[in-house]
Amino acid sequence: MPDPLSYMKAMVSAAIVSALCVLAMVAARRTTDRSWMNTACVTGLGLGLAVGCGILSLIPAWPPASALDRFLSMVVPASLGIELLAGIRRVPAWLLRCLRICLITTIPVILLHGSVYLSGADTEWPLWRTYTAMALCSALLTGIWALLALLSRRSPGVSISFAVCLTTQCAGATVMMAGYIKGGAVALPLVATLMASTIAIGLIAKRSGEPADFRTSTTLGIGVVSLFGVLFIGRFFGRLSTGSGLTLLLAPLCCWATEMPQLRHRKPWVVGSLRMALVTVPLLLVLVQAKREFDRDMAPLLGMEGPAPRELTAEIGDRTAGMRKSALP
To answer: How much is the pTM?
Structure first.
């Protein structure tokens, strides 16, 4: 069973390590150079995530044997590497766009590699359906990333990154209730590091007078990729429904509602609060539905009186077997 104390320790440790790393690296150089701040932020994210995953025993195997292993050992490092390059002034913008497009188009292939979805062994998912789903997922990720990046340039602020973090947190909880505990648990250290790094780099940027859009540009891409990865794993390797996954993935776009003429020129804290409130509405709907389904499917098993542990384990396994498409070795 999930251990809430371990989850809390992982989140707190990841957040502390991430924030301290960012602050220490900036203080060591005594500079607020944008490139160095970007390096500090990416480094803090990587170290914080490593610590959090270590506490939760989410150490990816090598070579990766599952979608979660590939997400942690390939997708997340690739995202961190691209954002690290984004802070180097000599790297041309066209190269960064190409790298991001390559990452977006290959994420579904990486996560589904070796699974029944690409082997043709699943009669419910013929190859044409799998490739269509992969193309649509890549298009969705591209559109959401581009729209949120555009919004962060039009109306900068940490609220956009916070909205992505809140959505990722809810996505993790939903995936856990959908039967994939580890797939949802990985969202916890991800969210903790993103939140801590965003706050730390935002405070430094505000104090030094750096452009406001820098506060979220570094973490936004990593946050969107993390959200997509958690939902993709939950949908294809857990029991997360397509409707719930799409709702969670599109929820951060509710931030665009604050661009209405009546709201756009309000005070920043008002705009930020409205964004968080608007994003919270679909998240609550998904969480309530997920809790109902969890109680309906699992409560009768967890509430049984007096079964032998082995019998209870076998029955839960029978109920959940076949609901998840496990990756082949």
So the answer is: 0.85
